[in-house]
UniProtKB/TrEMBL annotation:
Keywords: Transferase
Protein source organism: Glaciihabitans arcticus
Annotated protein name in UniProt: Nucleotidyltransferase domain-containing protein
InterPro entries (alphabetical): NT_sf, Polymerase_NTP_transf_dom
Gene Ontology molecular function: any one: nucleotidyltransferase activity
SUPFAM superfamilies, A to Z: Nucleotidyltransferase
Residue stretches making up the Polymerase nucleotidyl transferase domain: 13-57
Amino acid sequence: MAEIDERALPRIETFVSALLARFPGLVESVYVTGSAATDDWHEARSDIDLVIVTWRPILERDVAALVALHAATKATTPVDALYLTVDQLADGPDSVPSAPQVVDGEFRLGVAGDQLSWVTWLELGGAPRAEIAQSGLGPWSPAPEADARTARRAAEFSAANLVSYWRPLGRNARKRALFTRGSAPVSAAAVAWVVLGPPRLVVTIEQGRIVSKAEAGLFAISEFPEYAALISRVIDWRRTGEGSFTAADAREATRLLAACVKRGSSRDAPVGL
């Protein structure tokens, strides 16, 4: 089982306990996803990602309390979440047009897209999961592994996402960078997003699994060694928060992005398991 980061675990359990106290009988189980479950969680820099499975849908009357619960986490470690009913989890994302989702601690009731994809369902396979008993949060244990169909659908989604989202983003970013002098400072977070996001999708396409941003960076260093120096700097920045980037780095990041799009969307690229 993926291990929950020992620093994040108390914060997860504190939040879940508050949720259960406010909504007794609502929650069936809780999954931990993202960096807290992939050995890539960084104190004061990472958030916490949960999938919260409920016995009934979240209703308008629940919203104010859920907004307050998640907002209370923003000052320290934001707790983001996707809320699914038991039936929605079993049916899969194609049957769930929208669901309550929390991004950066902001709760929204009916959100389409975002975490509602086969990538999330693949990530739940083997993720730390705890059922809710009468006494409260039960022990953490691994969820069942995702099946081959889920891995295949996640790979198909990832290949489509490279073309529909990442390729236009890269083209637009490259145009902006061309009109900026190479030494001009740019957002480190933006460079990291472009450098690490597309390689994660390539891993899903080719290996049928979800990896952390750090592991995606190591994969990219291996597969695209001409960008190793930039990728290493981005990995270090995510870990320490130290370092800066320039427009020249942004242009190099878009070239890496284009290489990932080409590889991931190729007809010859292996898909899933």
